[in-house]
Design goal:
The protein has 439 residues and is an alpha/beta fold. 38% of the residues lie in helices and 21% in strands. The chain has 14 helices and 17 strands. An eight-stranded mixed β-sheet has the order 3-5-2-1-8-10-11-9, sandwiched between helices. α2 runs antiparallel to α3 (67-84) and α13 packs across α14 (423-436). The longest helix has 20 residues, at 107-126. It is globular. The chain binds aspartic acid. Aspartic acid binds next to α7. Residues 9, 37-38, 48, 50, 114, 168-169, 183-187 line the site of aspartic acid.
Length: 439
Amino acid sequence: MKKVVKFGGSSLASAQQFMKVGNIIHADEDRRFVVPSAPGKRFDKDTKVTDMLYACYALAEKDHDFTKEFSQIEERYQEIIDGLKLDLDLTPEFNQIIDNFKKKAGADYAASRGEYLNGIIMACYLGFEFVDPADAIRFNEAGVFDAELTNKLLGKRLEGIEQAVIPGFYGAMADGMVKTFSRGGSDITGSIVAKAIQADVYENWTDVSGFLIADPRIIKNPKGIDMITYGELRELSYMGAGVLHEDAIFPVRKEGIPINIRNTNSPEDEGTWIVGNTCQKSKYTITGIAGKKGFASINIEKDMMNAEVGFGRKVLQVFEDYNISFEHMPSGIDTLSVMVHQSEFVDKEQKILSGINRAVSPDHVDIQSDLALIAVVGRSMKSQRGTAGRIFAALAHANINVRMIDQGSSEQNIIIGVDNEDFETAIKAIYDIFVETRL
Ligand code: ASP
C-alpha cells in the first residue's frame, strides 16, 4: 500500500506539532509520501509563515529593509529545529532566499519558501528523501497548472523512491520561475502526488476531524460526516464548506483514489472519507448543508418569452460580455431570472440592464438584492420521497420566505434562495429537521 499524507500548517506550526506528525507517520509504514504546508498559527493571534513571507517580500520589492521581518521567519524555523534537536543548519538556505528577495524573485517564490524550508526540516526529521516540486510540478507560460506534464514528470521523479517529502503549494514554469497555487494549495499538491504515484489513499491531516454537516459558527456542535462522495463535496465546497481546497478533488477523483480527512490532534478519529461512489447510505437523508450570502437576482419578464427562440442565450450573452458568471437561472413561462454574485454585479449593474434592454426588449426587469443561497446536499435524497417537502415545511415553520428553488439534475442537491437576514435561521431549521429530530 502507498499512502500520501499531507499535513496542514497548524499540524506543523511548532516542534511539538512536528512530533505528533512524526508519530502519525511512523504508526503506519504505508505513509511514505509526505506533503507538508508551511508552519501555520501556533495560537489564535499568531501569524502564518506564508503571510510573514508575503509581508517581508512586499518590503523587499520596494527596496525597503526587511532584516527584522526576515529574522522573525528564521526564528520560527530555528525554534522547530531546536525543539526537534536536529543537526540541521538552514543558514545557507536563508542567505540564498535573502539574496533572491533582493533580486526580486517574485511574490510566488517568496511564499513558496515557507513550504520549501518546512520540507527540508521534515525530510531531515523523518530521514526521507527531499523532492523539490519546482523540478516536477509544472505550470505553463501563462502560469496555469499543467496537469498532464506534471503527472509525467512527477511520476518519473518519484519512481523507485521509497519515502519522500514533497513540499506543498508550489511548482515552477519551464524556465524555473516558481509559481504557487492559490492559498491553501498544499491540498492540491497532495492530490497531484497521490495521482502521480497511484496511491491507495490520500490522507489529508488538519486540525478538525473531517467535515461537519453544517457550519459550526451557525450550528452548535454539528455532527460530523463519515463518508461523502466527490460530487457531494464539490457541491458543498462550492457553497463555502471549508477544510479542503476546492481544486484538490480533481486529480484524485478521476483516479478513484479516496481522500481521508484526519485530525493531527486527534489521530484516533476516523475523520471523513471522500470517495467516488459508495453503497453506504449516509446516516441522515442529507449529507450536508452549506451556503453563502450576497447574491442578486435579475428578473426579466416578457410576454410570449417561451416562443422566442434564443431569448436565454441573448440574455446570458450580456452577462458574458461583462465577464459575470451566473450561479442559477430559474425560469417561468414568461419570466427568467439570473442569479449572480452581488459584489461582482453591482459596479456593472446599469450597463448590464441596458444591455438586456437592447438585446431582448423585455416588458419589465427588476432586481432583488441581498439574497443568500443554501445548498442541501445528499446522495440519499434521490431515492427518498418527501425530502423537498420536509425542507419547505421546516422553512415555513420557521417563518422564512423562500425566494428561489432549484433542484440540480443530479438530484443530490436542492438550492434554496432566502433573504440574507434569514440565512442562519434557515440553516438551523433544515439541520434541525434532518439531524436533530430526524423526522
Ligand atoms: N502555506 C500556504 C497557505 O498558507 C499553502 C497551504 O498551507 O496549503 O495558503
